[in-house]
Amino acid sequence: MLNNIYVLNGIRFILLVLAQVLVFNNMNFMGTINPMIYIIFLYWYPIRENVAVFLIISFLLGFVIDLFSDTMAIHSAAILTIAFVRPVLMRFCFGANFEFQGFTFKNTTRVQRMTFLGLLIGFHHLIFFSLELLSFSHFLLILEKVLFTGIATFIISLLLSSLFAKETE
Amino acid sequence: MQRIINFILSNRNTFLYVFLLLISLVLTVRSHSYHQSKAFNSSKWLTGNIYETSDNITSYFNLKKENNSLVEENRRLRIELFNLKVNNVSELDSSKIDFEVIDAKIVKNSFSSPRNYLTVNKGKKQGVSQDMGVITTKGILGIVENTSNNFSTVQSILNTKSNINAKIKNTDYFGSLVWDGNDYTTVQLVDIPRLVPVRIGDTIVTGAMSSIFPENIPIGFIKEFNLNDAQSFYNINIQLFNDMANVKNSYIISNKNRNEILELEAKTNNAQ
Question: What was the pLDDT predicted at A169?
Fold first, then answer.
């Protein structure tokens, strides 16, 4: 079972990277919108695992995508940060009981899960586009990009998460 | 001491986070102001090969269009060749050639971020090196930034760090070609003095001031222009000839005299 989690997350890692760099980075919907669906890795990642390992894996995921898209280390910084704040977001969305042993995604409501996903995406995109433009004079442009790309990412992530919904757990 | 160690141990995840964040911020901020990172870019073996495999599959969809544009270019070059009035024995002595051309396929393209890079499937082994110019059949594309054995990354003209010498065709008024990051069909030409007669529709070509591109390679045409804040120079918006969203084949130009030019310039600057 333990082994199973590693294999599952390893395959997820590779498939999400390939999907991101080969498909979604080339979408260019409405000219510039490229949804960043690899965030869903954090949404799927098990809750009660070693935090340090989780941070390192998230950083690596971002870094591999940076390598492919020639974006310095913006993806890494953004995904690392939301990996770090994920427990806080979970407490906010699911209440304090998510730390108990019996907690699974199954006994949360759909609205709670969507809020969680939306917050992950919102924070990630805000950090990503702020670092990408790296100037306060483009504040409105940053917000605009966060909003439009965020909506696209959110919709596609919802589709993906319902398409690959786990039967077990 | 014990307390410090305990403090570090109890907050080790926070320290790990801050450490990794610092790494990524340093990498990011450094390449904002200088060149793209040498160690981490998509010209490397793994990324290059994945992009090439993917391109091998998808490139079939554009074959017809690409063929048409190559035939069109051949036709234009034929006309030029047949109307060339000089002795038509081709020059084979390589010491008399100034520019060499390497063909390359673009395996990765991006145009939606403020700093765009392309990846092409030719590298050091094929003679590509940093700061060579890259063009397509229609116009300029960018400058080689990093190379590995078999791949190179190209800094696109759609990059806010890009700065290329350009001029209005058939005049000698030159300026700098930059990009403001907004629209991928439009770039900006700045530093053209006010007294220059500028008209909408004029063609913009590369200038002679650069040792990267040969003179007179097409870039685009003037879409609109206005004076800058100081009222002394024009800001000109240029519609690109290239469709940057759809480029497949490219030519990398190496200037054989570039090293000599750079050496000479360095000597002159040092002497001052």
Answer: 43
This complex has an ipTM of: 0.82
Q: Is B42 on the interface with A (CB under 8 A)?
A: yes
SS3 of B227-245: ECCCCCEEEEEEEECCCCC
B159 shares contact with chain A (CB less than 8 Å): no
- The pair of structure tokens assigned to A129 is 């586009």
* Amino acid present at A146: V
Which residues of chain B make contact with A133, given a CB cutoff of 8 A? 114, 181
Angle, CA of A153, A155 and A157, to the nearest 5°: 65
Q: Which helix (H) or strand (E) holds B178?
A: strand B174-178
For residue B225, the surrounding DSSP H or E stretch is: strand B218-227
Chain A, residues 47-66, CB within 8 A of chain B, namely 51-52, 55-56, 59, 62-63, 66
Residue A156 pLDDT? 92
With a cut of 50, list the residues of chain B below it in pLDDT: none
Mean pLDDT check: name the lowest of A2-6, A38-42, B91-95, B184-188: B91-95
Of A75, A25, A128, A13, nearest to B108 by C-alpha is A25
pLDDT at A115 over 60: yes
Angle at alpha carbon of residue B41, lines to B188 and A149, rounded to 5°: 60
Q: Where are the beta strands (DSSP E) in chain A?
A: none
Q: What share of chain A is helix, strand, coil (3-state, %, to 5)?
A: 80, 0, 20
